[in-house]
């Protein structure tokens, strides 16, 4: 619809996840009217993220070095590994400041419909990390949905024979939520996982 | 939170309109995992839109030439000018294929709270276009909201004395909508603007 460059930008933006045609148009016009230097910085940030960022050779978290900040950090507890699906999950857990161990990013979850099996995930690399005697506990922190649960079940079956402590994050009512709005499965899990107050 | 380049990209994306921190993170990780060439194209589209696109010297629509495609088109009816707030509105009207005249993009609407008065809009340039005898009708197609109505009122007062036909887009029920869900003002306008069926 638009002339050359504007339409190209709208098309490129529209290919990004969660940006529909209307948003793409709004963002394109914002870019058009915004400060040139700011927009050059945005363009450079896109190119440089592709050039600079790679994945940690140990845990597969995003990193600008061969190993990530967390794996390099000598103050972290090396006896616990928290297994997550994505780098985003690492950041979500880091923000809570309630975990001081290491991570292992699987790179997704088992999803037969999308053709993702265990061999597409970094499970083999996790197993080789566990051959080291240092690790005493593996916390399975995959998403509490169908694919995440399938992945957790697979990990339990695969890691079980090694004889390391395997734990799973608690499911239950979200803090700040309303009991009446909780879905049946969550409420059921909250009952199963009830804790003694005495 | 993230290391260098990833965080920079999230920050830059988060400054775009309608993209919150979570969306910025999702888009950043998409960029990180997407094809390098695709992302280079996106970065180039951002830079090139700033370099190539300017505003039509006649109507202030976006254009890659000194005058836009519509102003250059000899088949358009030069006796009607449709006045809109933004280039986006030009495209919205073009999509309907129900108008074959020219446009005039004001570059916004009168908004005293945001400090935008008539002198910040391309009203003077509109007046000089009307000094030409060719134009017989001006359609005021500003948004049907407070600022758009204020702008329309101002235009009527300013252009009235020139003695050109001034019209305003009809307000009424949106096609495909439900009467019971229409707001009071829209429903009131629909009554005022009712048309004879006989």
From TrEMBL, chains A, B:
InterPro entries: DNA_Rcmb_RecR, Rcmb_RecR, Rcmb_RecR_Znf, TOPRIM_dom, TOPRIM_RecR. Gene3D superfamilies: 3.30.60.80, 3.40.1360.10, 6.10.250.240, RecR Domain 1. Residues 79-174 form the Toprim domain. SUPFAM superfamilies: Recombination protein RecR. A zinc finger (C4-type) spans 56-71. Keywords: DNA damage, DNA recombination, DNA repair, Metal-binding, Zinc, Zinc-finger. Belongs to the RecR family. May play a role in DNA repair. It seems to be involved in an RecBC-independent recombinational process of DNA repair. It may act with RecF and RecO. NCBIfam families: recR. HAMAP family: RecR. This is Recombination protein RecR. It comes from Nesterenkonia halobia.
